[in-house]
């Protein structure tokens, strides 16, 4: 309860400036205190607020106004006319305040912008007048006939508001990209990059705007200039965010971005931080969760160079973060194209990854182990992998991963632990078709652990995917060594159909005796 109160107070403190501005606007009716232009004051305000700060303030106001639109629609549905009117007045004030503040902080606004602002203000005034007439009448028939008009006006106001916000955000992105594209000053470019990266963290919509306005082109332009080498990590980090949307990916393909990334990754003169951020971009564009990444034809042309560089980066990583980025890129590539698994085998990647797992300074989180076991699971479809696993003591590692537990209880970390357990069981199931691997798994007592995961929901954090993977691995090992299972385990977990065993385990209550 205490945490909730603190969060509420902090949120109120953040919104306080916006809300007090609104109250001031109610009293002043949007009239400026002075009609004279105070250019010195305007200059001071402009220097205090960067383009990014202005846009982030705008997004906060937009969130408040959008919330008010939703609440007005709800009150209108319940015929709460007095509340509808008061909230409409408040929205009117917020919109006028936002426009005035934006004009004060932004010089040389376009004619199109001014037209949109006027259109929105006029529509807000019309909306307020509508709702005011509603509270002055008690005739139900008249109110009923006006309700549809108010709904229509509310939709129009919301539409105009959305278009204005879109235009302001687009202009802000254009200004930042102009600074990045035409500046030869490292300090100015760094500030613009920092602002652009902050905007990409505001969500996919901002990333789409930046991509549409040529953000990918401008960022790769920096990555092709030696004078900006110190800015490569920051630039690549921003690129990874922009390329999380389809528009960014299309731009990447058009400007030969894959080739540029390959050049950075294979050039040992670049810092480890730069190559790690390039790996992060590769991880982003090859993510199996993206439906539009399969169209990267140029990636296949450069895949061998990229995979080789990423394996080297994993081998030479000086920190857990660098290893995580490089291994995440490799894991995604193994989903992206099956040929990558054969490349990894030729590059001794299995040996390198297994060795890295023994270094707790490098593979130090469930997230890193998730990437490693993903690569192992995808490579395990190749018959040649079995001998590599045996030589690198990989079965022992897979057993350890079956014991993966979150130390913090953080939901993201718990989910990562579940994935590690699931994929290690999948890898065991696939590799156990080789008698030598199956024998090693039995000798290391993998069967008791798999049974425990099947029978104890808390051991697998009630994960159904972990349960299915463990049942599959157990059945594969039971074929090789049926005598290692007790009769009850065999009758419940191996002999029935997989779906029947699954249902039995999901309905099983844990015994605390």
From TrEMBL:
GO terms for molecular function: cytoskeletal anchor activity. Pfam families: Insc_C (PF19427), INSC_LBD (PF16748). One of its GO terms (biological process) is establishment of mitotic spindle orientation. SUPFAM superfamilies: ARM repeat (SSF48371). InterPro entries: ARM-like (IPR011989), ARM-type_fold (IPR016024), Armadillo (IPR000225), Insc_C (IPR045789), INSC_LBD (IPR031938), INSC_LBD_sf (IPR038205), Inscuteable (IPR039921). It comes from the Eukaryota. GO terms for cellular component: apical cortex. Residues 4-49 form the Protein inscuteable homologue LGN-binding domain. Residues 61-513 form the Protein inscuteable homologue C-terminal domain. Coiled coil: none annotated. This is INSC protein. It comes from Crypturellus undulatus.
């Amino acid at each position: 309860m205490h945490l909730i109160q603190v969060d509420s107070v902090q949120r109120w403190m953040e919104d306080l400036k916006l809300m007090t501005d609104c109250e001031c606007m109610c009293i002043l009716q949007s009239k400026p205190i002075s009609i004279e232009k105070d250019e010195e004051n305007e200059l001071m305000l402009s220097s205090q607020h960067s383009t990014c700060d202005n846009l982030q303030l705008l997004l906060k106001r937009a969130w408040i106004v959008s919330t008010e639109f939703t609440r007005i629609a709800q009150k209108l549905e319940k015929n709460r006319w007095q509340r509808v009117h008061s909230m409409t007045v408040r929205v009117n004030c917020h919109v006028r305040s936002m426009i005035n503040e934006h004009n004060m902080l932004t010089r040389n606004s376009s004619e199109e912008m001014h037209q949109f602002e006027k259109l929105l203000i006029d529509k807000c005034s019309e909306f307020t007048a509508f709702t005011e007439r509603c509270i002055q009448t008690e005739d139900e028939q008249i109110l009923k006939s006006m309700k549809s008009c108010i709904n229509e006006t509310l939709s129009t106001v919301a539409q105009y508001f959305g278009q204005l916000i879109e235009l302001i955000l687009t202009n802000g992105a254009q200004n930042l990209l102009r600074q990045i594209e035409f500046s030869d000053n490292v300090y100015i470019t760094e500030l613009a990059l920092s602002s652009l990266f902050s905007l990409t963290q505001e969500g996919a919509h901002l990333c789409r705007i930046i991509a549409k306005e040529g953000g990918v082109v401008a960022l790769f332009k920096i990555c092709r200039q030696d004078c900006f080498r110190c800015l490569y990590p920051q630039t690549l980090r921003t690129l990874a965010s922009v390329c999380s949307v389809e528009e960014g990916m299309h731009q990447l393909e058009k400007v030969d971005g894959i080739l540029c990334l390959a050049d950075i990754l294979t050039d040992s003169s670049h810092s480890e931080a730069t190559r790690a951020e390039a790996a992060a971009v590769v991880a982003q564009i090859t993510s199996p969760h993206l439906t539009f990444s399969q169209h990267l034809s140029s990636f296949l042309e450069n895949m061998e160079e990229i995979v080789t560089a990423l394996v080297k980066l994993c081998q030479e990583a000086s920190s857990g973060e660098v290893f995580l980025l490089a291994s995440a890129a490799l894991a995604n590539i193994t989903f992206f194209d099956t040929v990558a698994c054969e490349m990894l085998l030729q590059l001794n990647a299995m040996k390198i990854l297994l060795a890295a797992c023994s270094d707790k300074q490098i593979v130090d989180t469930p997230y890193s182990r998730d990437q490693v076991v993903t690569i192992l699971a995808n490579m395990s479809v190749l018959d040649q992998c079995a001998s590599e696993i045996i030589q690198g003591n990989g079965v022992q590692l897979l057993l350890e991963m079956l014991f993966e537990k979150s130390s913090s209880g953080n939901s993201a970390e718990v989910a990562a632990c579940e994935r590690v357990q699931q994929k290690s069981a999948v890898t065991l199931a696939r590799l156990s078709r080789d008698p030598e691997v199956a024998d090693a798994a039995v000798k290391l007592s993998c069967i008791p652990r798999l049974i425990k995961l099947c029978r104890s929901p808390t051991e697998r954090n009630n994960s159904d995917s972990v349960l299915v993977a463990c049942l599959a691995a157990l059945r594969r090992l039971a074929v090789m060594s049926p005598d290692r299972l007790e009769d009850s385990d065999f009758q419940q977990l191996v002999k029935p159909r997989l779906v029947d065993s699954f249902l039995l385990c999901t309905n099983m209550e844990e015994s605390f005796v």
